[in-house]
Amino acid sequence: MGAPGVILRLPQIRPMSKSILDPSRTAAVEFSNDEIARYSRHLIMPEVTLEGQKRLKAAKVLCIGTGGLGSPIALYLAAAGVGTLGLIDFDVVDYSNLQRQILHGTKDVGRKKLNSARDRIKEVNPNVQVELHDAMFRSDNAVGIVEPYDIVIDGTDNFPTRYLSNDVCVFLKKPNIYGSIFRFDGQCTVFAPHLGGPCYRCLYPEPPPPGMVPSCAEGGVLGVLPGVIGVMQAIEAIKLIVGIGEPLIGRLVHFDALKMKFREFKVRKDPKCPVCSENPTITELIDYEEFCGIPQAKAEEEAEPPVPEISVEDLKARIDRKDRFVLLDVREQFEWDVARIPGAKLIPLGELPSRMSELDSADEIVIHCKSGYRSANAVRHLQKAGFSKLFNVEGGILAWADRVDPSVPKY
C-alpha cells in the first residue's frame, strides 16, 4: 500500500521481439529448481520471462580472446545463463594481464588462459557448457570453429583477426559483436549484414599501415575500460538472443572514460563493400596477415641493413669492466620512472632529432628501449645522421630484467 496521494507507476513493459534463434531450439529446454532460483531476477522481468531464459540456455556464443574484453564478456554471459560458451585463445597468463583480465588471477600466471577461464566460468555458473579452442584463429580453421555458434564476439586487438572474424561471420550469416579499446577510449557495435546492417569492412575498408596503430601492450589501457566495453558487448549478445531492445546494428557507440561521455555514430552499409555488398569481390577467406601488410612490413625491415646488436649479458659485462660508452634509453619518461638501467641517459625516441646535439658521434653508444624495437629505429636514425659506433640492446630492458637483474620491474 503506497503513501496517501502517491500513485504507483509500473514500468512500461517492452515485449520481446524476434530472437536470432530458431523457435524450435527452446522446445526441449528445461530448468532445475536451482536454475530457476539462479535466474529469478531475469524470470520476473516481463521483457525476459521464462521464454527468454530458455533462449539464453539454448544459445551458443563464441568469444574470440579471453583477455581484457573476453573476461567481462565470458563472465557476464555465463552468469546470465548462456548455455554454451566457446572460447578461443592460445596465450598464457602473464602478470601484465592481471590489471584488466579479470578471468584470471595471480595463481593462474603461467597457465593457459583457456584453462583458467574455464575454471573461473565454472565457478560463476556450473550449468554453462564451456568449449575450448586452443589455437590461433586463422583462415584454415575459422569456418569450422565459427559454424556451430549463433553469435561471435570479437575480443581481440589485432587487425588480421578483426578482418577474419568479420569475413567469416558475413559468409556464415552470424552476428559479429565488435569492441575495441585503447588507453581511455573504447567503442562497440554489431556487424550483421544479414540483419540489414553493415560489416567491419564498410567502416574500415583498408587496414592501417603496420605499426601505425599501437596495441594495448605498446600504448597502454586503463584497466577498467575493457570492463565497460566488454559488458556492452555482452549486453548486445543477450539482446540478440532474447529478442529485446534495439541492437547496435548500424550504430557505433564510442566511450571516452576521461570525460565519462558516450557518443553514438550511424554506420551505413557500403554499397561497394568487397564482402557484404550485392556484388562482392571477396567470396572466400584470404590471407589476412598479407592483407594487413604484415609480411611486406617484415620484408622491408629485413631488407634494410641489419642493426648492430649486443646481448644484455654483454652489456652487463661492459658495465662491470667500466668500458667507456654511452648507454642511451629511448623510452618515455613515464617508463623510465617505472624501471631503468643504472647509468643510462634518457632521450625519448620522439625527442631524439631535436636533442641529437647532446650526443657525440665519436662515442660508442649503446641504445635500449623496452623490447628492442624502438631502440633499433633509434640506431637507424642516428646512422643516417652520421653516427657509426652504435649498438642496439637485444630484447631491451625486459631482457635485462629476465636475464641480468630480476629486481628491475617488468611492465
Could you give the order of strands across the largest sheet?
Answer: 3-2-1-4-5-6-7-8
User: Which secondary-structure class do the elements indicate?
Assistant: alpha/beta
**Cα distance, first to last residue?**
58 Å
| CATH domain class of the largest domain | Alpha Beta
Instruction: Categorize the overall geometry.
Output: elongated
Return the domain count: 2
Oligomer: single chain
Number of strand elements = 13
Main sheet, how many strands, which sense, barrel?
Answer: 8 strands, mixed
**Average of per-residue pLDDT values:** 92
The CATH architecture designation of the largest domain is: 3-Layer(aba) Sandwich
Question: According to CATH, what is the topology of the largest domain?
Answer: Rossmann fold
Low-pLDDT parts are none
* Helical proportion, percent range: 25-40%
Please work out how many helical segments DSSP would assign: 16
Kindly provide the radius of gyration, computed on alpha-carbon positions and rounded to a whole number of angstroms.
26 Å
Relative strand content: 15-25%
Give your account of this protein's structure:
There is one protein chain. The protein is α/β, with parallel strands linked by helices and about 400 residues long. It has two domains: about 25-300, Rossmann fold, CATH 3.40.50; about 305-405, Rhodanese-like domain (Oxidized Rhodanese, domain 1). The chain is about 35% helix and about 15% strand. The chain contains 16 helices and 13 strands. It has helices spanning about 35-40, 40-45, 50-60, 70-80, 115-125, 140-145, 160-170, 200-205, 215-220, 225-240, 290, 295-305, 310-320, 335-340, 375-385, 395-405, and strands at about 60-65, 85-90, 130-135, 150-155, 175-180, 185-190, 250-255, 260-265, 310, 325-330, 345, 365-370, 390-395. The strands form two sheets. It has an eight-stranded mixed beta sheet with strand order 3-2-1-4-5-6-7-8, sandwiched between helices. The longest helix has 18 residues, at about 225-240. The radius of gyration is 26 Å and the shape is elongated. The termini are far apart.
